[in-house]
Amino acid sequence: MTDPLTDSAGVPPSDTPKRSDARRNQAAILAAAGRVFARSGVNAPVREVAAEAGVGMGTLYRHFPTRADLVVALYRHQVEECAEAALALLEQAESPFAALLAWVHQFVDFLGTKHGLGAVWQGDDAGFSALHQLFLDRLVPALAELFAAARASGELVADVRPYELLRAVGDLVAWAPDDPDYDVRRTVTLLVTGLRHELPTPRPPAPDPTSPPR
Questions:
Q1: Diameter over CA atoms, the chain
Q2: Could you give the C-alpha distances from 170 to 2, 110, 156, in angstroms and in order?
Q3: Which residues contact 71 (CB under 8 A, 6 or more apart)?
Q4: Contact 37, 109 (CB under 8 A)
């Protein structure tokens, strides 16, 4: 899908007030779509997305002529956000393992907007495969970076691979829409915490035999 805000070579032209407005509208639509799809799945009425974004239907369709265009753009946008969050979390969190857990929670939120994604493609296996490949190309290395930092700090067990955790979390999130009593964040937290390698507790210093008894 071509970005409506780039030229044929994929290079953004110099900003004008009109293009700045268009970029703001596009960002507002994507943010609104993320919220609406998280609540109602990707088959939610697009008019609900437009209303939440504060734009008219004409504006929405100028940016995203079909539902599939909107879903693909949101998917790509959120994959990039999730991938780029790994380094930021490593810089901000109190420990590499805390960064890992925070990233996995963000990944859960990302998956939460994808309920019903397969139905949107209506047999477009090539399109679906391209998105899945983007998912793997961006998120597996991001998680691998978090794993490497957590292992280097001694906080993570050595025998788990990034792809395995992504698949496991995906399977846990898949149950969430069907069970109102299921707390997916709590379940995922239990899973990730189970990968933690407990650091040995420092022993208290031995008593000084020359010290007088208390």
A1: 85
A2: 29, 10, 20
A3: 33, 37, 42, 117, 120
A4: no
Domains and CATH numbers, the chain: 20-65 (1.10.10), 67-195 (1.10.357.10)
**Does the pLDDT of residue 104 top 50, yes or no?**
yes
Q: How many residues does the chain have?
A: 214
Secondary structure of residue 156 in the 3-state scheme: strand
DSSP letter string, 44-95? S-HHHHHHHHT--HHHHHHH-SSHHHHHHHHHHHHHHHHHHHHHHHHHHSSS
Chain position carrying tokens 């943010």: 31
Q: In this structure, what are the phi and psi dihedrals at residue 174, rounded to the nearest 5 degrees?
A: -60, -25
pLDDT at 158: 76
- pLDDT, tens digit (0-9, with 9 covering 90-100), for 14-35: 567 778 889 999 999 999 999 9
